[in-house]
Fold this protein.
Amino acid sequence: MDGGSVLVSVYESLGDVAQADWDACACPEAEDGGRAEDPFTTYRFLKALEDSGSVGAGTGWQPHYLVAEIDGQVIACAPLYVKGHSQGEYIFDHNWGHAYERAGGRYYPKLQMAVPFTPVTGRRLLTRPAYGQPGRDALMRAAVSIGDRNKLSSLHVTFCTRFEREVGTEMGLLPRITQQYHWLNRGYESFDDFLGSLSSRKRKNIRKERAQAQGFGGEIVQLTGDAIRPEHWEAFWEFYQDTGARKWGMPYLTRKFFDIAQERLRDDILLVLALEGGVPVAGALNMIGRDALYGRYWGCTAHHPAMHFELCYYQAIDYAIEHGLGRVEAGAQGEHKLARGYLPVETHSLHWFRDPPFSDAVAHYLESEREAVTEDIEILTSFGPFRKANVEEQE
């Protein structure tokens, strides 16, 4: 596929792409041996999804990775999937699918440029630093062309950056704004320093919740790298299965994914476990980026008051402060995060539809939705837990 002077190829397995080429586009900042800005678009993470069978045949996520080259050099790549459903995306389009099919169309399969099961903002059009514009343009044109030539209903670029949203909008895709909750590190030196920025009532509530959770009769540990052992994954798999069954009907990740995580990803992972008599009874899995901690999964086999808040939110804040990280991203949805110091922020996506009348209808909907989301963020921020002076400074 020719994207102007750029050749774009499609690969159904990441094993057909050299890891060095992919990561030169996905995480060039990590060439010095440091952490990737976004651990989810790294070769090792996406390959773990594929090798574990979490994506691929029978999952509804069929890989079609895009790789752009100039004169044989890889300059850009993108994680692209053919989707047979709308599960595991977190930018919800179920109503669009129902409307499209009621009108006589076939919504699935569709194209999804995204990291599967991962509501985390990051670059989707991955380019070498010197090839930003030609790489992005070629990848976007190629993705749209694939959808059009194969008569697919749509292309969705989800949790892209604000800049990519602007680039895609100029190319004719429809922009969408949604929201989630992030904790921002304002240079706090300790958790108590963070608490000092909150209103008295919120500060007291958080202290009460932490005392409840930490007084459960066991201990809470933070594990990363070689401190994570295979037996920890056995326990976490139980937690993950329970949560997955209740939230999604079935877990998205396979058991094999966690074995591969132990082998290839443990340095990218912070596992927070509550131990009772040395036995894990609850846990939260986070991914570590260069300047952010990303909360991903939680589960438990025993109920303890406020344990969810402690493991998922407060322990994450502790870790971010101690390691100088700029933010904690706590995943999709959840207004309960607001009272715990996580403020609403915009998230972005892009959408292309092959059918022009349907595209026009969605465009009108998105315009109204953007206004509503922007207003919600303003209102929620004004009701945040911070003392009034702090809110005014943030605005």
Summary: The chain has twelve helices and 16 strands. The radius of gyration is 21 Å.
